[in-house]
Amino acid sequence: MPRSRCPRPALPVLRWLPRYSRAWLPLDLLAGLAVGLTTVPQALAYAELAGLPPQYGLYSSFMGCFVYCFLGTAKDVTLGPTAIMSLLVSSYAFHQPVYAVLLAFLSGCVQLAMGLLRLGFLLDFISCPVIKGFTSAASITISFNQIKNILGLQGIPRQFFLQVYETLRRIGETRAGDAVLGLSCLATLAGLRAMKSHLPQAAPAEPLAVRISYLIVWISATARNALVVLFAGLVAYSFQVRGSQPFRLTGSIPQGLPAFRPPRFSLAAPNGTVPFQSMVQDMGVGLAVVPLMGLLESVAIAKAFASQSGYRIDPDQELLALGVANLLGSFVSSYPITGSFGRTAVNAQSGVCTPAGGLVTAALAAVIISAVVPMFDAGIFRTLWRVKRLDLVPLCVTFLLCFWEVQYGIVAGVLVSGVLLLYSIARPPIKVSEGAVLLVQPGSSLHFPAVEHLRDSVCSRALAAASPARSVVLDCSHVSSIDYTALLGLAELLQELRRHGLSLAFCGLQDPVLQVLLSADLEGFQHFRSWEEAEHCRGAEPGGSGAEPLTSTAESTGLIQ
To answer: How many CA atoms does the CB half-sphere of 176 hold within 13 Å?
Structure first.
């Protein structure tokens, strides 16, 4: 009896936990600590961007991490508040925490339903050029977004081009303390990264002192971001104790954890109560835009880092993880969350940490720039130019539009990729071999957008005025599927050739396609096992010449696109 397949664990955590290695523990601890401390200042800033009290950014930061640990399939991704989600929340939650938390609950329901219905295949339409364009543009925009923090500038617009203009215009307002600290941290991070990449491996036979020195240097280089920000925090604290502060700090926020309770489905207003139905109507298209944009952003990030690290993700499982994270997050007063590019980059680079009590934004800016700059892939432009130039179109569209708005860049890239995909379906390559009988070989399956292209290609060659009319053999060895509209087109092609005293025969039909054609009961339908058999039968008909074989030389073969 064949051996039964082992069932795949329902929880992704059960796939990696049984084979967990002790060697991974220090790296996971360093990365977890770094990302956790990095989340604190970002969450405060994103809550302000969403138009909510700062504590709601913190409330949105921890549930996603717990859920994704058990349900996620990408080792690098971290869930939490992001700039895109915060801006969408500010548009659809009207600066009301009740609306924001309810939006998280409903977005989680939508994403969870999509995961349960296994609609993750829709995410396969995010092509590699779109992901590369997104990550390259995001690395630039996120890095430049931190320049204002290094320079200590406030009131800089969020939109990239306005941000560049305002930063350059106001560069004279740079705060010396922030700039010196930020640039020093950036230089230190670059030096520690270079040190780690050139650090030779200590052999077991080396003296104990050498091995201990190697371990100290390795830990310092691996935890470089954590050490840098901790040091910057101590510097800021020392100035605070002395009664001066040359750095711009986040400040204090309300303490305490949120109560675990379901979101409120109504809102008390001065003139009465706003019911659930009215709240849903107020949020309108946000109930579709927020979950879908969160999904696109999270999966694009997961795919990018999975590709970089050499593993694969499960889109359906990612849908479930994101849906559950938003659903449970709403019970702790979270607004909608998704995958964070900046924190995921920090996680992949082994992290950054900041002091929770007093954030030094310049130090954090240096850490984020250091983490995301390696994500810019300049080589992909040269590679696509050499391999397939058409793929540069969605790459460039995504890359350029992400400087305007990241969500527009991703959506536009997906749409352009979809158009190119549909074009390849509508215009499959068709090889035509000349001879007494015309052999036509479609290069892919036949669906309704391609049928007119096939008919025009066959008729233009079979009924060409410069050559005698010839019967046609359609070699379908590369055709694995066919739809009803294509059947109608083939029936019309049969009739048109018959009006000119010619015939159309099929060969090399795969079983599913043959069954469809037989079921359609096409008038005059003939099929053969091979094109040699079809050529022999067609050439023996009146008007055909069996003396001239089919050829496929360079001079007589056309490739019609």
So the answer is: 0
